[in-house]
Amino acid sequence: MDLVPALEEPLKKVLGPPTAKVMAESLGLHTVGDLLHHYPRRYEERGQLTHLADLPMDEHVTVVAMVADARLHTFASARAPRGKGQRLEVTITDGSGRLQLVFFGNGVHKPHKELLPGTRAMFAGKVSLFNRRLQLAHPAYELLRGDSEETVETWAGALIPIYPATAKLESWKIGKAIQTVLPSAQEALDPLPATLREGRGLVTLPEALLKIHQPHTKADIADARSRLKWDEAFVLQVALARRRHADAQLPAVARKPKPDGLLTAFDDRLPFTLTEGQRKVSKEIFGDLATEHPMHRLLQGEVGSGKTMVALRAMLATVDAGGQAAMLAPTEVLAQQHHRSVVEMMGELAEGGMLGGSEHATKVVLLTGSMGTAARRQAMLDLATGEAGIVIGTHALIEDKVQFHDLGLVVVDEQHRFGVEQRDALRGKGKQPPHLLVMTATPIPRTVAMTVFGDLETSVLDQLPAGRSPIASHVVPAADKPHFLARAWERVREEVGKGHQAYVVCPRIGDEEDDPKKSAKKKSPEDEAEKRPPLAVLDVADQLAKGPLHGLRVEVLHGRMHPDDKDAVMRRFAAGDTDVLVATTVIEVGVNVPNATAMVIMDADRFGVSQLHQLRGRVGRGSAPGLCLLVTEMPEASAARQRLNAVASTLDGFELSRIDLEQRREGDVLGQAQSGARTSLRVLAVIEDEDVIAEAREEAAAVVAADPELTDLPALRTALDALLDEEREQYLEKG
C-alpha cells in the first residue's frame, strides 16, 4: 500500500492510548486517515441554537443551550434514608423548547456551581423520557465562555462542528482530536483523476478535508461536501465497474431455448396471457441467456407483479437448452411454496420420466434441510444425473455433497436474505459460471439499485397482472379508539362469513424464555406503555379463539415449528380448511392463497415500511378486494404513526421504499448489501444524490474501460484498496 504514511499513523501514537482505544471501540476509527474522514453531522452557529423541540428519543445528542434555572432537591432513598439524597434539576432552553437535565448524588456538586442561570454551554447525553418529559440524565457539558485562550480559539469560529458521538466520547472531544490531526490532511492523496476534478469544478481532497472540519462560511461546507460526495460515489462505482468488466470477461454457456420445446409447451398451457411488462422483461433475460458471458440481472417488481412466472420461464428456457436451473429460497416455507406452485403451473410438464408426463417434461425436485434421508438421496441423485431439470431449495442446495449435471441458471429469491458466500457457493457448482438472476420483492429506488447492485443489470416489473384486486389499507389506532379494534375483528368475521380467509400477523412467537435480568427492574407505568413487549402469535391466537373470533377455525404458523407441521398448516390454509391464520412474518414473501382477503397486522409500528408492504401483498391475490388493517397503540403525532399513514396511503412499493429510505439512514440499506464494512456512506445520501451517483457511474465506467487495472491512477487504486480491505475484496469478487 503506497498511502502516505501520515494518514496511516495509528491514533494511539498521536492522541495517546486511552483516547485511541475509545475511538477504536466506539467509532471504529484506528488511523489519522479514519479520523479525518469522520465528518461532522451538522454545524451549530454561535447565534443559533439546536431545536430542543425536535430531539430524537434514545439517541446521543449534542445541544447548545442556555441554563434557565437550576434547583437542588433532597430526598430519601434506600442509599440515603435520612433525606440526604440529592438531585440537581437544571432546565435549559434554546427558544424552541425546554429540556430538563438531572444529576444525582455526588455528581451534583460541580454542575451546581457551574450551571448558573444565564450560562451557555454544550450538553451531550442520551435523550430519555421521564414522566412524559424529555430529559438528559448526567449529561457531559462544556461551558461556552470566552475567557480562557483555548476556548476562545476553539469556539470563536462562527460554525461549531457537531460530530457523530457516543456516550464515551462527546462531540467536542472528537473535535479537539481532529484539530490535532488536521495538519496531516495536506498529505491526503487525491483519488479523483485530475481531469474529472477540474471538469466538474471540485476542490482538492486536502482542501475539502480542511473545509469540512474547519469551515469559515457555509459555502466552505458546501464545497467540501460536494467534493467528498464525489469521492464516495466515484470510488464505489469504480469498484462495481471493475466487477462488471471482470464478469464480462468470464465464459458461460449460451442457453437458447428450442423452438418447440418445454417453454413453448408451457406457454401454450397458460390459462392467461402474460402482461406487457412480463413479456418485456422475459425478452431482456432471454437476450442475456443467449450470450456467452454470464448474465447478472436483478429482477425487481411490485408485490404480486408475477416475478415467479418470469423466473420460471427463464428456468424452462435453460432446461430447453440442455442445462439445469436452481432456485434458492430464503426459508423452507417459501421453498415448499415455490415448489408447489411451480409443479401446479407446469402440470404434466413437471412429470419428466413418469407415466403421464409430457414428452417435453422434466423433473422438478425440492431440496431442503429437513427432508427425510431417502427423499434427499433421491433428489440429489436426480440432480447429479441431470434427470431433474429444475431444483428448488433452501441453502441446503449449497452443501458440498450436492452435485449438478450441468448447472446453467441460478435464480436467487429475495437477495437480501442471502449472504454473498452462499450465492457464490451455488455459482461454483457449474462447470462454467452459470447465469444469475436475482429477484427482490422489495422494490428498490433506482439509486439504491445503482449503488448496491451496481454490478447487476436491472429489470423492473411495475404492472400488476390482470385479475389482481385493489387492497384497501387503514390504520387502527387501538389506544385512542378501542372501538376501532373491535370493528376490525368484526370485519374479519364478515370476510369469513363471505367464504374468505384472513391473516393476523404478530411481531413475536411468544414461547421465548423471559430474561429474568430484564424483568427484575421495576418500571414506571409510562415505561410499561412505551416498552411493553411486542404482541405474540401464541397469546393473540388464544385470545382471539376465545374472544372476538370465537367459533372460527384459527391456526398458528411461526418459524420455530417443525417444517412438516408448517407445511401441513399452510396446506390446510391453502385448501380453505382454516379461517384465520395467526402468523409471524414467515408469510411475508411468496405465500399465495387467493382466497385470503383480510389481514390484521398487530403492533404494526414494530415493522419496517417495506415489510408491511410485503405482508399486505399476501391479500387481494384473487378476484375479491383485499383489506389490510394496521393496528397500533402509537400516538397520533409520533413518527411511527406517520410511517403507517404512508403505508396506508399508497400501494406503490417504489414510492414506499423511498419513504422508508428517507426515514432510515442509508447505512441500513447498504449495510446488508455491502457487508457492513465501514464504507456505509458518510456524506452521500442515496436519495438526494441521485444525479451524483448516476454521473459517477458513467465516469467510472469510462475510466475502467480505458484502464481496467488503473495503472495510470495510483491514488485511485489506493483509495480502492482502502475501500475494499481484504474482507470486502472477497465480498465483491463473490458478488
What is the gist of this entry?
With 735 residues, the chain is an alpha/beta fold.
Notes on the protein architecture:
With 735 residues, the protein is an alpha/beta fold. Helix content is 41%, strand content 18%. It has 29 helices and 21 strands. It has a seven-stranded parallel beta sheet, sandwiched between helices. Strands 16-21-20-17-19-18 form a six-stranded parallel beta sheet, sandwiched between helices. α10 (218-249) crosses α27 (690-706), α12 packs parallel to α13 and α17 (446-452) runs parallel beside α27. The two termini are 24 Å apart. Mean pLDDT is 81; it is low at 148-157, 514-530, 666-680 and 729-735.
Strand count, sense and barrel status of the largest sheet are: 7 strands, parallel
Counting DSSP E segments of at least 2 residues, the number of strands comes to 21
Count of discrete alpha- or pi-helical segments spanning 4 or more residues:
29
Mean pLDDT: 81
Shape: globular
- Measured distance between first and last alpha carbons: 24 Å
Radius of gyration: 30 Å
As laid out across the biggest beta sheet, the strand order is: 11-12-10-13-14-9-15
What share of the residues does DSSP label as strand, in percent? Answer: 15-25%
Uncertain segments are 148-157, 514-530, 666-680, 729-735
Helix amount:
40-55%
- The secondary-structure class comes to alpha/beta
